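Researcher: I've been going back and forth with a colleague about how AraC family transcriptional regulator might be arranged in three dimensions. Neither of us has a model we trust, so I'd like an independent prediction. The organism is Candidimonas nitroreducens, in case that matters for your notes. Sequence below.
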Amino acid sequence: MKYRSTDTGPPRQGESESPGALPRPVYGHMESLANRVIAHRHRHLWIQLSYATQGVIEVQTPTGLFYATPRQAVWIAAGTPHKTRCAPGTEIRSLYIEPAGVAQEAVRGACCVLEVGPLLRELIRAFGLLPAEYREDGAGGRLAAVLLDQLAAAPQAALVLPLPADAGLRRICLAMQAHPGRPADLAHWAGELGVSGKTLSRMFMRQTGLSFRLWRQRLRLLAALPALERGQRVTDVSLDCGYESVSAFIAAFRGQFGRTPGDYFGAAA
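Model: Here is an independent structure prediction for AraC family transcriptional regulator. You can compare it with whatever you and your colleague have in mind.
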């Protein structure tokens, strides 16, 4: 699945950071691809919430990969270095929030994925249509307050893939991410790194909390989301992601997400 590197934030100044102030403590921004391309890692002085009404978003930070379908949004804390990629045809509603405006009990970690229910989805959509300088003491300000309350209450989703700190292991992980259906096994990647399979296995567990097999399985399932969201046949998606049978793919998908691909996206598998 090919992605495009994008950023839908306010105009940047400088190479890595967006200085200055938002026009309001909560700023809504609506974009469709093609967006402004940012190939390098960057960060904002504000909290960023990336949500797609269609398509799939992927956010990469130093510690992990975070995915969101139209059922989720990615919360990126202020100052977190990140890259954002979107599947072609993705339509984004981004929110930017002054950290001082978020209640302490609602503060999230550096990055996480939030579940977006029907009410929160409609609030994000409605907020994106407001003018940049909405009245804080009017309907726009009240909408912003309700939106922040709903974000604080939103549960986290497990659409996260941890990345290792070790440079060699990270290189292997990103190579697998680029070609999730590649059949290369543990022994192959151990040879690439010049270590034994047991050593590589221990490195994966120590640095990601997952075994090599579970890390690769989760990667393949997350990589399948864009094609499934577009309505591509489950059989084709499973083969593209390296599964030898559609039944094995569906079983793994249900184990990870708690439902079949058809149920997850509201269409027949």
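Researcher: What would you highlight for our discussion?
Model: I'd start with this: Residues 56 and 69 are 5 Å apart (CA to CA). After that, consider the following. Confidence is low (pLDDT under 50) at residues 1-16, 32-39.
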